[in-house]
């Protein structure tokens, strides 16, 4: 029987919960607040900006109007000279329109999205096959394999960073941008597979084996039973695992910082944010807006995962 | 439809034998029920036929096909599972036609079969529901429908009614019997419920510890059980067994002397080779002496003290002591015996069975049913 709380107990409980929530959410509020402040407002300790300033977001998302290039009159005269080739003119103009303060946020976001999405899809697919094998099939050294995979997860990334980079150099992958991204993708796959397998394996075990047996009696091979019964029934968990892998790859910094150092164009968001943080003139609203935009997909992912986690797809299939 | 033949089938897990040297032929269109206590190997036998368990040794044949090495999906067998095993993500309609579609049936056949099955099992109103939205009985009917929609060689039932309440179980039992006869299905049905075994089976296979104890029609099993295990397992309440010594031509226990010569199929010479025998009398074969019509072959147990009376409506079960053992008799409503009363019970000696006292307790007076 549950004890009913007194009003004082309730107040204390809610106050504690509220404090905990604020403690967790405060850094995010700070990011949001700063990203919306005008530079003159940066010193203001209040979380609420005096004026709503969306320029940082507009700039990052490429919504700012293109600046007219300010060219001195002498140079303008040179440019007006029809004898000068178009190529030369372009070179001259470039000297006056430095792109050094343009942060290609969209490009980084696309890089990150592509690698995270591919990692999520591949990891979920491979994990589902492996998890099924470990959960359902009997083969020699089965438990050794199941535990061995988890062992990979226990080894810290820092320990493997140098040897893995060395390996990718040795096999020639690190010598091209494509190869480097492929090695990074493989590393993300290895990083996410153990937990993905663990999550899916545990989920598969909750699906009664008799459903597969019924499918086999209905004319399905084992593989068909897997695709037609197990996979549709595991949708919520597959989605959750995908989100997990996606977010891990989305936020990964350590390996990206080593592998993508020399390939500026292919850098991912965590790496780019780091560059933004350490640049000489820290433009706080832009840094915070970039952080906010980086966070956004993660938050959306978790909200979606939460919705799908209610699960219960296998209800009613077998007598409980 | 096809026959099923199991030849010297063995199944063991490591060194633990589960099914021992099982031989059985299920004829085309026959309904065979495997019955036995938990762990007797009946479900394992069924699953070996289905292909869901490997056979350690022996052969299984469906029609002219040896199916030992065929995977389940190539055996053309339909099965109803104990826990229904409906596909939770599919509607009732999809569940029923799943196997048909898989077998490549054309749209018209699928439509026709679905209509037949849903009408037969009264599932018309539920076709678009998911299994989670159905009651236990409805789910059971869908599971039946899924199997029946298939044009399978053999239909297997693994305790399909054990999760239903008594009333529904009775109803579904009749339905299964009706459908099986209507479609002349070859069916193997596993149950631990002896009433299902008796009412459904053309033949009943009684199993214990992986061994077939007896195969026969329900009445064979009831009236001529080959040993004390079958005698006590089939029939409710269980058959009473009294140990009697042999004194000349009489079987003696307590103050009673039963003339062995009046018991059916007794070879007195053979009986002489035993010191003691077990006398088996089914509770149903006792009669209240006050109500029985006199006959030469009736034996009367006098002065029986009734310990307990359980009224079941038409019948009543009475408990008493006989030969130092607890015994039961089932009398009809004409009898008005009361607790602690002393009564006489009669039994037709043609119905009395004798078993030897070996551990197997084999039937001595076997004969025609």
UniProtKB/TrEMBL annotation, chain A:
<feature type="transmembrane region" description="Helical">
    <location>
        <begin position="108"/>
        <end position="132"/>
    </location>
</feature>
<keyword id="KW-1003">Cell membrane</keyword>
<feature type="transmembrane region" description="Helical">
    <location>
        <begin position="237"/>
        <end position="260"/>
    </location>
</feature>
<keyword id="KW-0472">Membrane</keyword>
<comment type="similarity">
    <text>Belongs to the binding-protein-dependent transport system permease family. MalFG subfamily.</text>
</comment>
<feature type="transmembrane region" description="Helical">
    <location>
        <begin position="144"/>
        <end position="165"/>
    </location>
</feature>
<keyword id="KW-1133">Transmembrane helix</keyword>
<dbReference type="InterPro" id="IPR050901">
    <property type="entry name" value="BP-dep_ABC_trans_perm"/>
</dbReference>
<dbReference type="GO" id="GO:0055085">
    <property type="term" value="P:transmembrane transport"/>
</dbReference>
<feature type="domain" description="ABC transmembrane type-1">
    <location>
        <begin position="109"/>
        <end position="305"/>
    </location>
</feature>
<dbReference type="Pfam" id="PF00528">
    <property type="entry name" value="BPD_transp_1"/>
</dbReference>
<dbReference type="GO" id="GO:0005886">
    <property type="term" value="C:plasma membrane"/>
</dbReference>
<keyword id="KW-0813">Transport</keyword>
<dbReference type="InterPro" id="IPR000515">
    <property type="entry name" value="MetI-like"/>
</dbReference>
<dbReference type="InterPro" id="IPR035906">
    <property type="entry name" value="MetI-like_sf"/>
</dbReference>
<feature type="transmembrane region" description="Helical">
    <location>
        <begin position="12"/>
        <end position="32"/>
    </location>
</feature>
<feature type="transmembrane region" description="Helical">
    <location>
        <begin position="287"/>
        <end position="305"/>
    </location>
</feature>
<keyword id="KW-0812">Transmembrane</keyword>
<protein>
    <submittedName>
        <fullName>ABC transporter permease</fullName>
    </submittedName>
</protein>
<feature type="transmembrane region" description="Helical">
    <location>
        <begin position="171"/>
        <end position="190"/>
    </location>
</feature>
From TrEMBL, chain B:
<protein>
    <submittedName>
        <fullName>Sugar ABC transporter ATP-binding protein</fullName>
    </submittedName>
</protein>
<dbReference type="GO" id="GO:0008643">
    <property type="term" value="P:carbohydrate transport"/>
</dbReference>
<dbReference type="InterPro" id="IPR012340">
    <property type="entry name" value="NA-bd_OB-fold"/>
</dbReference>
<dbReference type="GO" id="GO:0055052">
    <property type="term" value="C:ATP-binding cassette (ABC) transporter complex, substrate-binding subunit-containing"/>
</dbReference>
<dbReference type="InterPro" id="IPR003593">
    <property type="entry name" value="AAA+_ATPase"/>
</dbReference>
<dbReference type="InterPro" id="IPR047641">
    <property type="entry name" value="ABC_transpr_MalK/UgpC-like"/>
</dbReference>
<keyword id="KW-0813">Transport</keyword>
<dbReference type="Pfam" id="PF17912">
    <property type="entry name" value="OB_MalK"/>
</dbReference>
<keyword id="KW-0547">Nucleotide-binding</keyword>
<dbReference type="InterPro" id="IPR003439">
    <property type="entry name" value="ABC_transporter-like_ATP-bd"/>
</dbReference>
<dbReference type="InterPro" id="IPR008995">
    <property type="entry name" value="Mo/tungstate-bd_C_term_dom"/>
</dbReference>
<dbReference type="GO" id="GO:0016887">
    <property type="term" value="F:ATP hydrolysis activity"/>
</dbReference>
<dbReference type="GO" id="GO:0140359">
    <property type="term" value="F:ABC-type transporter activity"/>
</dbReference>
<dbReference type="InterPro" id="IPR040582">
    <property type="entry name" value="OB_MalK-like"/>
</dbReference>
<dbReference type="Pfam" id="PF00005">
    <property type="entry name" value="ABC_tran"/>
</dbReference>
<keyword id="KW-0067">ATP-binding</keyword>
<dbReference type="InterPro" id="IPR017871">
    <property type="entry name" value="ABC_transporter-like_CS"/>
</dbReference>
<dbReference type="GO" id="GO:0005524">
    <property type="term" value="F:ATP binding"/>
</dbReference>
<dbReference type="InterPro" id="IPR027417">
    <property type="entry name" value="P-loop_NTPase"/>
</dbReference>
<feature type="domain" description="ABC transporter">
    <location>
        <begin position="4"/>
        <end position="234"/>
    </location>
</feature>
<dbReference type="InterPro" id="IPR015855">
    <property type="entry name" value="ABC_transpr_MalK-like"/>
</dbReference>
């Amino acid at each position: 029987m549950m004890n009913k709380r007194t009003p004082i107990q309730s107040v204390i409980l809610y106050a504690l919960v509220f404090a905990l929530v604020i403690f967790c959410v405060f850094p995010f509020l700070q990011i949001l607040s700063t990203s919306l402040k005008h530079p003159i407002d940066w010193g203001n300790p209040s979380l609420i900006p005096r004026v709503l300033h969306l320029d940082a977001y507009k700039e990052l998302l490429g919504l700012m109007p293109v600046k007219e290039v300010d060219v001195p009159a002498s140079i303008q005269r040179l440019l007006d000279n029809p004898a000068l080739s178009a190529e030369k003119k372009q070179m001259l103009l470039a000297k006056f329109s430095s792109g050094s303060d343009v942060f290609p946020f969209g490009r980084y976001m696309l890089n990150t999205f592509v690698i995270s999405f591919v990692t999520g899809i591949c990891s979920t697919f491979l994990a589902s096959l492996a998890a099924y094998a470990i959960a359902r099939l009997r083969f020699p050294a089965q438990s050794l394999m199941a535990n061995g995979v988890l062992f990979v997860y226990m080894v810290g990334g820092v320990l493997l960073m140098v040897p893995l980079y060395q390996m990718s150099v040795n096999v020639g992958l690190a010598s091209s941008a494509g190869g480097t991204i492929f090695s990074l993708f493989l590393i993300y796959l290895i990083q996410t597979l153990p937990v993905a397998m663990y999550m899916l394996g545990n989920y598969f075990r909750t699906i009664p084996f008799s459903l597969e047996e019924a499918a086999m009696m209905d004319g399905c091979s084992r593989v068909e039973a897997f695709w037609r019964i197990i996979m549709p029934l595991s949708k919520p968990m597959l989605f959750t695992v995908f989100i997990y892998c996606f977010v891990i790859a989305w936020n990964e910094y350590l390996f990206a910082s080593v592998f993508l150092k020399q390939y500026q164009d292919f850098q991912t968001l965590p790496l780019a944010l780091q560059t933004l943080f350490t640049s000489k003139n820290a433009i706080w609203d832009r840094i915070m807006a970039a952080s906010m935009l980086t966070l956004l997909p993660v938050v959306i992912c978790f909200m979606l995962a939460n919705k799908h986690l209610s699960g219960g797809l296998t209800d009613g299939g077998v007598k409980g | 439809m096809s026959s099923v033949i199991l030849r010297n089938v063995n199944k063991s897990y490591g060194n633990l034998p589960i099914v021992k040297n099982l031989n059985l032929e299920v004829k085309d269109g026959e309904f065979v029920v495997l019955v036995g206590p938990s762990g007797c190997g009946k479900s394992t036998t069924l699953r070996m036929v289905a292909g869901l368990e490997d056979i350690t040794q022996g052969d299984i044949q469906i029609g002219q096909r040896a199916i030992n090495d065929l995977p389940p999906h190539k055996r053309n067998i339909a099965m109803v599972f104990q826990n229904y095993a409906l596909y939770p993500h599919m509607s009732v309609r999809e569940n029923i036609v799943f196997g048909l579609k898989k077998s490549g049936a054309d749209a018209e056949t699928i439509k026709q079969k679905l209509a037949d099955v849903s009408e037969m099992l009264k599932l018309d109103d539920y076709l678009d529901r998911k299994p989670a939205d159905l009651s236990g009985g409805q789910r059971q009917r869908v599971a039946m429908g899924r199997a029946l929609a298939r044009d399978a060689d053999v239909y297997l039932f693994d305790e399909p009614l054990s999760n239903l309440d008594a009333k529904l179980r009775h109803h579904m039992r009749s339905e299964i019997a009706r459908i099986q006869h209507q479609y002349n299905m070859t069916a193997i049905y596993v149950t631990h419920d002896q009433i299902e075994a008796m009412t459904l089976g053309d033949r009943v296979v009684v199993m214990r510890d992986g061994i077939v104890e007896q195969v026969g029609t329900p009445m064979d099993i009831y009236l001529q059980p080959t040993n004390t295990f079958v005698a006590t397992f089939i029939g409710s309440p269980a058959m009473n067994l009294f140990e009697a010594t042999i004194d000349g031509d009489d079987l003696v226990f307590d103050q009673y002397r039963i003339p062995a010569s009046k018991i059916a199929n007794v070879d007195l010479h053979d009986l002489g080779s035993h010191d003691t025998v077990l006398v088996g009398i089914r509770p149903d074969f006792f009669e209240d002496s006050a109500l029985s019509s006199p006959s030469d072959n009736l034996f009367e147990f006098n002065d029986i003290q009734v310990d307990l009376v359980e009224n079941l409506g038409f019948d009543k079960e009475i408990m008493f002591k006989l030969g130092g053992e607890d015994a039961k008799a089932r009398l009809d409503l004409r009898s008005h015996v009361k607790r602690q009363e002393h009564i006489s019970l009669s039994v037709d000696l043609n119905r009395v069975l004798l078993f030897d006292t070996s551990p197997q307790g084999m039937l001595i007076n076997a004969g025609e049913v």
